[in-house]
Amino acid sequence: MKYSRATFLISAIVLAIYPSAIAQAAEKRLLPKVLVDFKDARAVQWKPAEAEAVAVAQGGSHALQVTTEAASSYPSVSMVPQAGAWDVSGYEAVQMEVTNPQDSEVRVLLCINNPNSDGVHHCNVESATIQAHGSGKVTVPFGMWHGNAGHDLDLKNIVSVQVLLDKPGKSHRFLVHAIRAVQLTADMSAVAADPFFKQMRAAYGRGVNLGNALDAPKEGDWGVRLKEEYFTAIKEAGFDSVRIPIRWSTHAAASAPFKIDAAFFARVDWAVNQSLQRRLIPIVNVHHYDELFQSPDAHRTRFLALWQQIAEHYRSFPPALVFELLNEPHDKLTSTKWNPMLAEAIRVVRKTNPTRDIVVGPVSWNSIKELANLELPEKDRHLVATVHYYDPFHFTHQGAGFAGPEAQSWLGTKWTGSDAERKAIARDLDAAIAWAVEHRRPIYLGEFGSFNRGDMESRARWTRCMAESALERKMSFAYWEFCSGFGIYDPQTNAWHAPLKDALLGTAK
Q1: Phi, psi of 414 (to 5 degrees)
Q2: Is the separation of the CB atoms in 355 and 381 below 8 Å?
Q3: Helix axes of 262-277 and 228-237: crossing angle, nearest 10 degrees
Q4: Residues recognised as catalytic
Q5: What one-character-per-residue DSSP string does 385-411 give?
Q6: b/e sequence 417-430, b meaning 16+ C-beta within 10 Å
Q7: Which of 438, 379, 460, 429 is nearest to 185 (CA)?
Q8: For strand 241-244 and strand 206-209, is the pairing parallel, antiparallel, or unpaired?
């Protein structure tokens, strides 16, 4: 069966002019407001706790060098304005620049405090991972506490900012540069006007993940076996694509040449062909390669060998079939290791599939915040960037056993669709599409979803906001997932969870 790529263009999605929520330019931009730059010792005082802090001059600028010890659980430095408080009203976030001169990465947190802050209440907090010998920014959007909305601040009474590490487990040394109040939506009108954005399309349309099946240690271990009628139901409902997570690593030899089991290959072929026969775009990936995350160097050769076999096997399949290199690189597979590895994997695939779409995502579980550290071969224009999104995590993962015992305490968390909640999603997806336009790459929201312990009304409301927000920004998407804990389909009754299906397909308001 041979189909041209044009056969699979998404005709059902007609996107109007970039929506007003994104396209409207700010009426008046505020320049960043410097809170701390370490030039004037009289403007701020710093108070180290289980840390050392020394002002240093570097390259014509000033910074605070912070050193922490391994035994400290929350080593920190608080910075307090001599005037008593900062007024940051009119701004949307506080942003801090960090340089990491170490040979290992460091996760840095920034906390913005009102009076009586205890680290959870009366404060906003966010974190960022700064790669070894790299620089980055920690951005704390107002109203947020580790990605969860509803933590409002008195913006006229910021009494301190606190730089800290969360149980680092080892000593660290890093440099804190300027800390500024900023606006985050400055470039959205420029994004909308950019020629690249204007010609972008959501190439894979609206999709769903066939999770917990071929990505289980063995299909069926997690309660899901793929059935032909699932593909029919997905197509007839109105979806355009399916993402097929696949755990190749448990079906391949442990020693060279790391041969993939022929019977498993045949099972994946069946799933791919079920998709193609129904004109669903299939995206196949490498999923749950846990050993690679723990020991990247030891498993690099095997990872590349898997892709050599996958690429060779599917070289003659229609161009509608899409490859995704690796689901959610994380842990010890840092950007420093992932960027050269992904470049090698792309070269392996291109030997047999020179123009097939390849989806590639950043580290830290395909985090939007890590897009800045993702390096893609510039000359290869058949690459699509992917991100995943599960914020606010306390809502999307409430009651999920795999999220840890604390997830039970999140039960009852609702998503009301408040202005602050919607703005939080908009800020993050704006950052993703701004990166996509800057780097001239399409972007694919490969996973988002909410666990079934949340109330259905909140889940449907959040899902609709996510789907509409993605398509407004011309992002294809795939909901996580079809018929398990996050599912939109009940395999026992062979019926859709209508509120979720309608939210994804836009068939009800």
Answers
A1: -110, 160
A2: no
A3: 30
A4: 328, 447
A5: EEEE---SHHHHTTT-GGG-GGGGGGT
A6: eeeebbbbbbbbbb
A7: 429
A8: parallel
Domain ranges of the chain: 5-20+188-505, 33-182
CA torsion 229-232-236-239 (nearest 10°) is: 110
pLDDT over 60 at 245, yes or no: yes
CATH superfamily assigned to domain 33-182: Galactose-binding lectin (2.60.120.430)
Total-model pTM: 0.81
Record the tokens describing residue 495, joined without a space.
Answer: 């019926």
Question: C-alpha angle 389/391/21, rounded to 5°?
Answer: 80
Nearest to 341 by CA among 322, 372, 332: 332
**Residues 359-413 pLDDT 10s:** 999 999 999 989 988 999 999 999 999 999 999 999 999 999 999 999 999 999 9
d(CA 157, CA 286): 48
SS3 381: coil
Q: What CATH fold (topology level) applies to the domain 5-20+188-505?
A: TIM Barrel (3.20.20)
How far is 89 from 29, CA to CA, in rounded Å?
A: 13
